[in-house]
Amino acid sequence: MKTYFRVFICFFYALLISCEGSFDADTFAINLRYPEPNSKCEKGVPNGDKLTLPFQWEPQGDISSVELILNDESIAIEAFPNEEGLFEFEFNVEYSTEYSWKIKSNEVESEARTFQTPSATPNDNNVPLAVTFDPNVIVGTTQTNSKSITVNWSGDDKDKDGNLRYDAYWSRTDDISPDKNAGEEKNLTEATVTFSIPNFNPSEEYYILVVARDLENSSFNVFKYCQSCPN
C-alpha cells in the first residue's frame, strides 16, 4: 500500500509539472526569417510602381492568429507554409523606403527588424543632383606649412537608397577631370573635403570638381576659388 501511494504521488507531481509547463510563455515564439536585416530584397517581385515582398517567419507553439506590423501599421494577414516550411505572407511595399516589421499574435510577438527596399529598376533610377557649393572656404595651415582648403557643398539623391557617394578633385587649371587633377579624395559619404595645397598662393585660382554618384548614374559640378582675387 505504501509503495502504491508513493507511485501515485510521483505520478501526480509529474502531471502537475507537465500541466504547468504547457502554459509557459517560453513555449510560444515567432522567429523572423525574411526579410533579413540589411536584406537586398532579392526575393521581391516588381509589381508596377511597387515591390511585392514575401514576409517569412517560423512559429513555435500552437499560435492561432497573427498580424503583420509594418512601420507601426497593423495588417491582418492569412499566412500558409511554403515549401521550406516557413509561414509566408506577400505584401506590396514602396521602393527606396526603410521599413520596420514584426509578426504579432495573441500569445506572443516577434522581435522587430528593419530593412531597406532598393531603388526602382536602373533604367528608371534618378540621377543624383549636381552639388551646390558653399562659397565660404576654410583655409588652414598643415603640418608641412602648406595651406589646406576645406570646401563644403550640399547634394541629394532622390532615390534615398543610401548609395550616394562623392568623388572630389582639385587642380590649378580649369580643364580639371577625374583623369587630370592635382589631388583627389574618393568615395566620400559626407558633403565636405579638405585638400592640402603645396605652394598655396592666395592670388591664384583653384578649381574643385565634385562628382556625385550612386550605383547607376552620376552628375558633377566645378567650383572656382581664389582667396584674394577681386570679385
Descriptive terms for the model:
231 residues; mainly beta; Immunoglobulin-like; 2 domains; 5-stranded antiparallel beta sheet; 4-stranded antiparallel beta sheet; 1 helix; 9% helix; 43% strand; elongated
Give a short summary of the structure:
The protein has one helix and 17 strands.
Please provide the ordered H/E string of secondary-structure elements: HEEEEEEEEEEEEEEEEE
Superfamily (CATH H level) name of the largest domain: Immunoglobulins
Distance between the termini: 112 Å
Give the second-level CATH assignment, the architecture of the largest domain: Sandwich
What is the helix fraction of residues, given as a range?
under 10%
Put simply, the count of helices is 1
How many structural domains in the coordinates?
Answer: 2
**Rg, alpha carbons:** 30 Å
Structural class: mainly beta
Percent strand equals 35-45%
Largest sheet: 5 strands, antiparallel
